[in-house]
Amino acid sequence: MQAAGSPGDQEIGQDYYEKLGVTKIINAAGTYTILTASIMPPSVQAAVARAAKNPVRLLELQAKAGEYIARKLQCEAAMVTSGASGALTLGTAACIDVMNDAPVEVVPMQVASMKNEVIIQKAHRYSYDHAIENCGAHLVEVETVADYEQAFSPKTAMAHFFNAAEGGQIGREDWVRIAHRYKIPCFNDAAADVPPISNLWNYTRMGFDLVTFSGGKGIRGPQNAGLLLGKRDLIAAAAATNNPFDEGIGRGLKVAKEQIIGMVAAVDWFLEQSDDGMQAEFLKRAESIAADLRAVPTIQSRILVPEIANHVPHLFITYDQQAVRISPLQVAAELRKGTPSIELNPSTGRREGSKGIQSDENTIVVGVWMLQPGEEKIVGRRLHEVLSKATQT
Ligand SMILES: *Cc1c(COP(=O)(O)O)cnc(C)c1O
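Above: query sequence and pyridoxal-5'-phosphate SMILES. Below: predicted holo structure tokens.
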């Protein structure tokens, strides 16, 4: 079954998913990389297809795309990267190169004896540490402000902040202010932290020297693209270590012309949206699914908005498993097996789920923001079928 309203309906080109036997899914989860994150809006898909028709000079495209994005997002400079993870690597390499006044080739093999320390709060350690450590950087953990002040050394190259971290004693503004007192550049990883749209300029304005956003999450650009925003000298250094140049760590972090243009078009699309409009649409979808489940015995639904990352309405469903004899994990498996195949939010039936999504063994979580128009009806119907079937009568 074709996902309702998907822009590819009467489209040019072969359906290679079909040809390969790849299952198309309904994404009731969210912007998860493993589920190919977001669907580009039609205007972005069209821009990508059109960009594919002409060769251009890559350096000119990179430079002009960066200038355009910097202007739109009110920062000094910007570049399109191969995702937020790629931006972490390029940005860290840039800090190391600039702080050591060293050529791009030093990263990662020669930096052990140079400024290569990156200060980070212990509570901000995360799976993307690798993207930083790829540069030969050494992470130095701090907890208190006093620790932080003491951590600055002749080896310090960067201070790193994980914007959606749930712990950490030191707030953004203090983090930046103190780093700058020691003349150290400060990076904020805000990959998953739009909406609100204004976050695209909030953190650079706050003084962060580098900020990254994933392109394939809330901005709905190409999945293999992202944004690195920040200070002119650091973005220039990041560009120097990026492809097409062969000497830097970014050679493998290639972004093709189609995706560079797609990222620019996605920024345009995203800036045309409004926070209220998006929230209202997501709320409507969540309410529609909740309404479809009203007749299921003991059902309770709540709509909650996570604080920072995934900051959009999510639907949380609980019920008495004595009356409805199926666990949330079994419900997720049933929806996955069905036609069309539906993916619920991975926090379904789990205590440790995604950032800011408080779930447990007894909760179904529906992420509605990546649904395509009309798909909430299918999700509501399938959830109703599966839960009703499990109801003792
Ligand atoms: C998703 C994410 C990334 C990686 O983003 P990509 O664009 O997939 O590379 C990095 N950091 C955080 C906090 C994220 O949520």
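The CA atoms of residues 42 and 117 lie 43 Å apart.
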